[in-house]
Specification:
This protein is about 30% helix and about 25% strand. With about 625 residues, the protein is of the alpha+beta class. It has 14 helices and 22 strands. The model has no long low-confidence stretch (mean pLDDT about 95). The chain is globular, with a radius of gyration of 26 Å.
Length: about 625
């Protein structure tokens, strides 16, 4: 391809590759739609709201501010939420109208969006057109990358988080995990007569990943290098971290080389390439698509700190020892189906030293939990989990110090195991946690007069070192395209993910699989279609396609681990990583399958119509 004017370092380039990638709008389609029940007690000036939200303390601030109610008089209760994917981190007009009606009527008022209402009132996301170019040296080095991103946000953005973050991530992260040379990007937003724009799982990352990974495949083809090998050569070296890919961005530590090696072994890459070549001789078009990704997690206050909205980057945890030797854990995180309560219980049980069945977890209530940011941005284990870790550690130390005073020994000689205080060296029992608690609570006459046991502790944590603790991974898709019908058959999907310290590997795997399914849905099925009058024409599950179990391939998941050093726990995020890379892997696989036909598709979803048009079989 001819060099593009203005591309960084294009003047000395051996090759310049370019593509325009289009991602159509789609929406979250959560199992549970948006729901809110507001009850205003005029006599007490108390507003109690049961809400399907990810962010109870943010909603408390918003409702107190907009209805001129003292913040302590606003209580937000969040039962287990039936899915969110970013949909429920915004405040909707329906929410405020429900609260206003309750205040005016003096009665409880409930609003639940049905599915038709959800399609036209829930936020939409993605909807980008990205023009991307890459300059390559003769030896295969990337000399420079240029990105021009345009996306439509509807008439306004979701409140209070806005729409800028999606464009920011796109402009920052195209080919960010590679030695991308000189880099220039811009992002622009256009107002449209469509649904409002908000933040959807892995905000902007799938768009950035598609643009970068399409360029990587194009670069490999232009240089005559295998796509996997071109990625390996282009990765940031393992000894270059912390690495700064651009202004304000720092990658603390990634494991891209290990992830690629693990993926190629899992999928038996040479065998698949040989199988693909053999099938092409019989006009069977199979494709292999690779997609490396980096993904922001554990965000710092820099994410929203300049906006003025009450969006907390910190989380907190209160742990107390009960009189019977169990522990109650109140965490500011929220359970939205990702297993947050299980992770909180595991961390607390392990850190204090009690059986997990003796742990009670409380979340989702501004009246009974400490202040925190809730659940967004792949921060549950990394931020809230670290607060639990620190609180558990402090409670354990307090218990050991107390028992040491009672028994005339040193706290360092003791440990807590399976609900018992024991001698650390021998494991011999000293007393049960119930005995320690009952002494502290009920027999204060046996407690030294100069000592006050503290068996309720609160700890907060915010990641302050970087803008985020970036995760990484790589995905591969293996599929077959029917050149006569344009249909795509998914055969297998592989993921190697690095979420730092894994608290619950099973939960990590199912989170990744679910996120991959959402990414596949974007790649092949999901699209909000508007007519010329600005009306959504496929606003129901009859017309809006979502991925179904029967259409999904087996998804095999592997792991590498580079724990973040910004916390003692070392956990990074896992919830959004699968979505970040899946669409790019599928799109690259489709184009790899179509390569013998000299056809390419750069718009998702990759529908049969778009494939047949690329093949020249329809106009």
């Amino acid at each position: 391809m001819k060099p593009a004017s203005g591309l960084p370092a294009a003047a000395g380039a051996e090759k310049v590759v370019e593509a325009t990638i289009v991602t159509t709008r789609h929406t979250a389609v959560t199992l549970e739609p948006r729901a809110i029940l507001a009850d205003f007690n005029a006599a007490e000036g108390q507003l109690t709201v049961w809400h399907s939200t990810q962010v109870p303390y943010m909603m408390q601030w918003i409702l107190a501010r907009h209805f001129n109610i003292s913040e302590p008089q606003v209580r937000i209760i969040v039962p287990d939420v039936g899915g969110s994917f970013g949909l429920k981190i915004h405040a909707y007009g329906d929410d405020l109208a429900t609260v206003a009606a309750s205040i005016l009527l003096g009665r409880p008022v409930k609003f639940v969006a049905d599915r038709l209402e959800s399609f036209v009132s829930d936020f939409h996301a993605r909807g980008h057109r990205v023009k991307a170019r890459m300059a390559l040296a003769k030896n295969g080095d990337i000399l420079g990358v240029e990105v021009d991103d345009l996306y439509g946000i509807g008439p306004y953005s979701g409140y209070p988080r806005g729409s800028a973050n999606e464009g920011i991530h796109v402009s920052n992260l195209v080919a960010a995990g590679y030695k991308r040379g000189r880099y220039r990007a811009r992002t622009r937003a256009a107002f449209q007569n469509k649904a409002m724009y908000g933040q959807y799982r892995a905000v902007g990352h799938p768009v950035a990943c598609m643009a970068g990974e399409i360029l990587m495949d194009a670069g490999a083809e232009a240089l005559g290098i295998d796509p996997a090998e071109f990625r390996r050569r282009s990765y940031v070296p393992d000894d270059a971290y912390p690495y700064r890919p651009g202004p304000g961005l720092v990658f603390e530590r990634l494991s891209q080389h290990a992830a690629l090696a693990g993926l190629l072994a899992m999928m038996d890459y040479p065998r698949l390439r040989a199988e693909q070549a053999d099938l092409r001789k019989r006009s069977v078009y199979r494709g292999i698509g690779l997609a490396s990704f980096v993904e922001n997690s554990n965000p710092s206050a820099a994410t929203y700190g300049q906006g003025g909205a009450s969006i907390a980057a910190q989380d907190a945890c209160t742990i107390k020892l009960t009189a019977t030797g169990g522990i109650t854990v109140a965490s500011s995180t929220v359970e939205i189906g990702q297993g947050a309560c299980a992770v909180v219980a595991q961390i607390a049980a392990t850190r204090v030293g009690v059986p997990i069945e003796r742990v009670k977890v409380v979340t989702g209530d501004t009246e009974t939990t400490p202040y925190g940011g809730g659940n967004w941005g792949s921060r549950g284990a990394g931020i809230a989990g670290e607060a639990v870790f620190q609180a558990g550690q402090a409670l354990k130390q307090n218990i050991l110090t107390f028992v040491a005073r009672l028994t005339g020994t040193e706290a360092s000689f003791l440990d807590i195991r399976a609900g018992h205080v024991v001698e650390a060296a021998s494991g011999a029992a000293v007393m049960t946690l119930e005995q320690a608690a009952r002494t502290a609570y009920f027999r204060t006459d046996q407690v030294p007069s100069d000592f006050q046991p503290e068996f309720t502790v609160t700890r907060s944590y915010a990641q302050k070192t970087y803008t985020g603790a970036y995760t990484n991974g790589i995905q591969a898709s293996y599929l077959e395209v029917d050149a006569d019908t344009g249909f795509v058959k998914l055969l297998k999907h592989w993921v190697v993910d690095d979420c730092g310290t894994s608290i619950n590997p099973l939960l990590d795997d199912v989170q990744i699989r679910g996120a991959v399914v959402q990414g596949i849905g974007a790649a092949l099925f999901e699209e909000c279609i508007y007519g010329p009058e600005g009306q959504l024409v496929n606003g129901s599950l009859i017309d809006y396609l979502v991925p179904m179990a029967g259409e999904m391939p087996d998804i095999e998941v592997g792991h590498t681990s580079s724990p973040t050093r910004t916390s003692e726990l070392g956990a990074k995020g896992a919830g959004e990583a699968g979505t970040a890379g899946a669409s790019a892997a599928v799109l690259n696989a489709v184009n790899d399958a179509l390569k013998p036909c000299n056809a390419r598709v750069f718009e998702i979803p990759v529908t049969p119509e778009r494939i047949l048009r690329a093949l020249g079989k329809i106009g």
